[in-house]
Specification:
3-stranded antiparallel β-sheet; globular; Aspartate Aminotransferase, domain 1; alpha/beta; binds 4'-deoxy-4'-aminopyridoxal-5'-phosphate; Aspartate Aminotransferase, domain 2; 7-stranded mixed β-sheet
Length: 364
């Protein structure tokens, strides 16, 4: 028996998504073709766009499909000369050229005063953008997005957010919040890998395409659309039931409570911060995260050490270090990210497995 506690890395695909994709597999063609078959596929593409717009409360025509969030993040920032980004962003943002970074505090929130100071001092004629993730993939800590937007509006600088981990777990109203650009990803919400989207409030932003070619997606993302992935993405969005999120939060809290009660010295990072309903990062003293990850794997648990994006690497959590935690702690954290297929019995199993492992390592 295996227990999958790594939804932030990728969420399992719903059976209904799989069967929808299978149906489309039988429809051969290219959505850009003018003939009947092509137009039918184009309709499916547009249905998916509509479903993404409904989920995120944005204008359907402003959803630009990409191959995933990495590409959407790159597309969002590609046309800007200066990128003001938080220090805990995903690599696809952090590795951009010409970035100015904003620190985070021990609670995991970005330093708003620092953001204002940077915006005050910078030459805005240069093409400046601010990019701060909605919620962090490792800690689940949610950024004060409304406050950030308020500041960026005062300084008239566009605001992009990587909402990969937040969408489907928080109610996000793109238009009401006044976000300029937002990135989302299919495989994090139970759709197939290979699709994502950049949502824009207006295509008048400085959007410099990454790919030149057949001018699909309003010339913003050339290349034949990966229809199977995009259709599955839309279907996954359609199936998301935000009413179930409260249940997920209760489950996360029950996990945390049981782990703390086990008297193993476990600490929850950012425990009192505003966090995603499904995610927690736990510190287990006396054992390195990479050893714990392998030991848990042998006990049947799929978990991760912080970010799983640069797969294969079990390095100290960069996010934790940026939050000001010592290296020892950053090297001892495991991320648990839950989803709708988990249940409370898995929390008891996890506690038992941890006790067994720590005993074996001579820690208890
Ligand atoms: N941003 C965040 C916050 C993520 O967690 C991830 C995936 N781990 C990405 C971007 C990249 O997503 P994709 O796999 O769709 O490229």
């Amino acid at each position: 028996m295996r227990y999958y506690l790594d939804y932030n890395a990728s969420a399992p695909m719903d059976e209904r998504v799989k069967s929808y994709v299978k149906e489309i597999m039988d429809m051969h063609g290219n959505p850009s073709s003018i003939h009947t078959k092509g137009r039918k596929l184009k309709d499916l593409l547009e249905i998916s766009r509509q479903r993404i717009a409904l989920l995120t409360k944005c204008n359907q025509k402003n959803v630009i499909f990409t191959s995933g969030a990495t590409e959407a993040n790159n597309l969002a920032l590609n046309g800007y000369k200066k990128k003001i980004v938080s220090i805990i962003e995903h690599e696809s943002i952090k590795k951009q050229k010409n970035t100015i970074t904003i620190d985070v505090n021990k609670e995991g929130y970005i330093d708003l005063v620092m953001l204002e100071n940077i915006l005050q001092s910078i030459n805005k004629k240069e093409g400046v953008i601010v990019s701060v993730m909605f919620a962090n993939n490792e800690t689940g800590i949610i950024q004060p997005i409304e406050k950030i937007i308020k500041i960026t509006k005062i300084y008239q600088v566009p605001f992009h957010t990587d909402a990969v981990q937040a969408v489907g777990r928080l109610n996000i109203n793109f238009l009401k919040l006044g976000i300029d650009m937002m990135t989302i990803s299919s495989h994090k919400i139970g759709g197939p890998s290979g699709a994502g989207a950049l949502i824009v409030n207006s295509k008048k932003h400085i959007l410099k395409p990454l790919l030149l070619g057949g001018d699909q997606e309003d010339s913003l993302r050339s290349g034949t659309e990966p229809l199977l992935a995009i259709a599955g993405f839309g279907q996954a969005a359609e199936l998301l039931d935000m009413k179930k999120i409260e249940k997920l939060k209760a489950l996360r809290m029950a996990f945390e409570k049981k782990l703390k009660k086990a008297k193993l010295g476990i600490q929850i990072i950012g425990e009192n911060s505003n966090r995603l309903p499904n995610t927690f990062l736990m510190y287990t003293p006396g054992i390195k995260a990479e050893d714990l990850l392998i030991a848990l794997d042998l006990e049947g648990f799929d978990v991760s050490t912080g970010s799983a994006c640069s797969s294969g690497k079990a390095e100290p959590s960069m996010v934790l270090k940026r939050m000001g935690y010592p290296k020892k702690m950053a090297s001892g954290v495991i991320r648990i990210s839950l989803g709708l297929y988990n249940d409370i019995s898995e929390a008891d199993m996890l506690v038992n497995a941890l006790k067994k492992i720590l005993k074996r390592f001579g820690k208890i």
